[in-house]
Amino acid sequence: MKNDLLLSRPDRRLFLIAGSSLTLAACGSLDKLVGPPDAPQMYVLRPAAPAAQPGGKVGWALSILKPDASDSLDSSRIALAKSETQIDYYANASWPDRLPELVQTVLLAGFEASGRIDAVSRGDDALHADYELSTDLRDFEARYATPDGVPTVAVTIIAHMANARSRMIVANLAVTLTQAASANSVDAVVQALDVALAKAVDQITQWALALPPPATSDTAKATPEPEPAPPPKSARARSPTPPPRAP
Question: Residue 234 belongs to what H/E stretch?
């Protein structure tokens, strides 16, 4: 019975070789399963710079704050919407940075390309500014009417201009744009987002540069307080009348 269970030397050698091969094959498959995922394809936003705008240069300085965005858009992933209530992302596709940072860079480049402002910077630079531009990214995704159809991209940016000194908002602008993609592909979606974002930046720069110079709180000259009226002159003190002498 024991001999039946034991393998002969040649059989044992074949068994060990086969076992080693299976182990190596399993390790190779395991590497594919637990190894790092494939690096996503990077896509960059390159909207066309707006043309130089007519008009003279403004005399005020502008600080562009980093845009606010919901958690679904404050990401490096490229968003898509399959319905009004569902947000998803393209697989293996990514922006090189978080979306708010990219849009801030595009806004900065748009003001610089306008040729009408010399002093424009990012809010993080902490440079002197007369106005602060804050924005809110409400929409920046591809929208599908049908699962396999050609999407339409939507870009919505709410802009606020505030006096940098008083921190009071002086003007607001809502920009909503859509652009049909040329095909159902990430490349086509990014190109459509470039077109929509370029139009949005053009509207924001024209609106902002048309604003009047920010109001400065002039230091009011202190009105001198009237001098207090001199006290009424007191009557001359009379010498006290001597008491009458006793008879």
Answer: none
d(CA 118, CA 141): 33
The whole-model pTM stands at 0.73
DSSP calls for 183-236:
SSSHHHHHHHHHHHHHHHHHHHHHHHHTSPPPP----PPPPPPPPPPPPPPPPP
Reported as a single tens digit per residue, the pLDDT across 3-57 is 443 444 444 444 434 444 444 344 444 344 444 567 789 999 999 987 888 888 9
Question: For the CA atoms of the chain, what is the radius of gyration?
Answer: 38
17: which residues sit within 8 A by CB, 6+ positions away? none
CA 162 to chain centre: 16
Query: Do 88 and 82 form a contact (C-beta atoms < 8 A)?
Result: yes
Distance CA 119, CA 31 (A): 54
- What 3-state class would DSSP assign to 172? strand
Among positive and negative, which fits the CA dihedral 128, 66, 55, 46?
Answer: positive
Contact predicate 171/209, CB 8 Å? no
Single-letter amino acid, residue 168: M
User: Do the Cβ atoms of 177 and 140 come closer than 8 Å?
Assistant: no
3-state secondary structure of 163: strand
> Residue 151 in 3-state DSSP?
coil
Residue 127 in tokens: 């440079």
Q: What is the CATH number of domain 60-209?
A: 3.40.50.10610
Contact indicator for 62, 11 with CB cutoff of 8 Å: no
